[in-house]
Amino acid sequence: MAEAVLTGIERELVLKYLMDGNVPVTIMPAAQKQDGTHADGVRAVGAVFPVAVKPEQLKVLDSGIILLQNPAPAVRTFLGRPVTVEFFFNKLGLCFTTELKQVSAGLALVVPAMISRITEVPDSRAKGFSATVFYSGGEPAAGSVCCMPAPGFSVFAEPSWNDIPHEVAATAKEYLDCFMRQKPQDNLPVFSNALYLVPACRYLAQNSAGAKPSVLCVTHEYIVFGSAGDGSFLREGVEYAVKLSFPLPDAPCTMYREVYGFCYVRRRLCVDGVPLSCTVCSFAAVKEEDVRFMQELSKWAMSIKQQAAIS
Fewest C-beta in 10 Å: which of 74, 86, 103, 309? Predict the structure, then answer.
């Protein structure tokens, strides 16, 4: 999320850096919760996910105007809308918000006076969270597996492409394009969005897993696990009892709210040549008051991100 604003001198140095070329940028909607939901409940790629623009597709003028030359067709979905442009300057993540405009030379972005640094937003409430999956007869002999959040993943907040490190963003985008083309294998109701693909693609692109499965994302609808191997610690067609333990930070001592229910595998995400997999599970039989709790927790986590973005 954006934090400190560059000084005027720093902005001029960055602008010259852009003019010198060989700087890829990423363009995404400035307000990701607006627009484009398909009839099947999955938002359009351009309405949620970013579009990468290669250095050779950019021409930066002295006036601070960036001309886009033969960009990907998806870029046009942002025309006339506020967008966030992200790039790296000497390994420092930077971003600015502007509007994509049509000019005589093609599509253009005006670099505003304010360019901001990007920094990670810690998700303090994720510390101590765990998801325990209980096996039944015939399943692994351990009886249960306790999964903690994957390091660096904000498991409660709505996933954002900003969460993905720049060095693996291109690889993650390739995986995203592949998964978006795949059709669900079941006839069950779809989730309200496909944002679970963001942490899944990040996890696979980073290609680093611990000894145990970990949690990448959790909402009131689903939970996403990342694990080494083919994800066979959970099998299709089996309903598992699950316990979610949420730490209560305002309590006078370490206390947890425990949410019980069931989960079952809805989708397995893997890539040839990557020894990892992501398993997306739906929740079932969760109490109504616990569903409301998780919805409010997601809203809280998103408010933290939004506050950091405008601070």
Answer: 103
Pairing of the two strands 2-5 and 116-118: antiparallel
Q: Which of 44-48, 74-78, 171-175, 197-201 has the lowest mean pLDDT?
A: 44-48
The two tokens of residue 121 are: 């937003």
Contact (CB, 8 A) for 225 and 215: yes
Render pLDDT for 209-258 as a digit per residue (tens, 0 to 9).
777 899 999 999 999 999 998 878 898 888 899 999 988 765 555 577 88
Residue where the block lists tokens 């994509």: 100
Tokens in use for 141? Answer: 């002999």
Helix (H, G, I), strand (E, B) or coil at 276: strand
Inform me whether the pLDDT recorded for 183 exceeds 60: yes
Of 51, 59, 57, 2, give the one whose Cα is nearest residue 26. 51
Q: Note whether 150 and 215 are within 8 A (CB).
A: yes
Helices and strands: H and E segment counts in the chain: 5, 16
Cα angle for residues 250, 144, 157 (degrees, 5° grid): 40
Q: How far apart are the first and last CA of the chain?
A: 9
Q: Are 58 and 25 in contact (CB under 8 A)?
A: yes
What six digits make up the tokens of 3? 């934090």
Q: Minimal CA–CA distance to 152: which of 86, 216, 88?
A: 216
Cα 210 vs. chain centroid, distance in angstroms?
Answer: 20
